[in-house]
Amino acid sequence: MTDTFQAQLDSPIGVLTLVASDEGLRKILWEDQAEQAGDATVAESHPVLTAASAQLTEYFDGDRAEFDLPLDLIGTDFQKAAWLALADVPYGETRSYGEQAERIGRTGAFRAVGAANGKNPIPIVLPCHRIVGADGSLTGFAGGLEMKQRLLALEQAQQSFDI
Asked: Of 38, 97, 135, 146, which one has the greatest count of Cβ atoms within 10 A?
């Protein structure tokens, strides 16, 4: 089993727990999910965790619209494809589950995409908060709909600045 490491990040949306392996970022956990870090060793100075903390801080400060981090995704091939497609949704914009399904070549698989997004281990970096219902409504989000709205509002407010 691969060693994992964790660090906490105080953010404007609460304390986030970051989990990484030497290969890359593995999880970003909301405050109420911190126990899912399991037996990951606390390692504030791990290079992946340091980079993730810095980039997330820049994001929350409005100084970063895209992330450049190594990722260590654990999931099915379909889940990984759905998660990686999230990174293609531009900062401050939204796409529907159907559009995401089309993006990965699985037209009509919007429910499966929604299920995959619900298991996205790296929210914010892989921005599942940018995926909405076909009618533009806010739908499911592991961090809760209020958190989804906060992240979208943060991006839309910062979008008027040159990032």
From this structure: 97
Q: Is 102 tagged catalytic?
A: no
- pLDDT for 64-74, tens place per residue? 999 999 999 99
> Can you give the pTM of this predicted structure?
0.91
151 by Cβ neighbours in 10 Å (0-12 / 13-18 / 19+) ranks as: buried
How far apart (Å, rounded) are the C-alpha atoms in residues 118 and 140?
7
- Specify whether the CB–CB gap between 148 and 129 falls below 8 A: yes
State the span(s) of the chain assigned CATH 1.10.10.10: 77-158
* Catalytic residue (choose from 40, 48, 128, 132): 128
Nearest to 151, CA basis, from 82, 70, 27, 159: 159
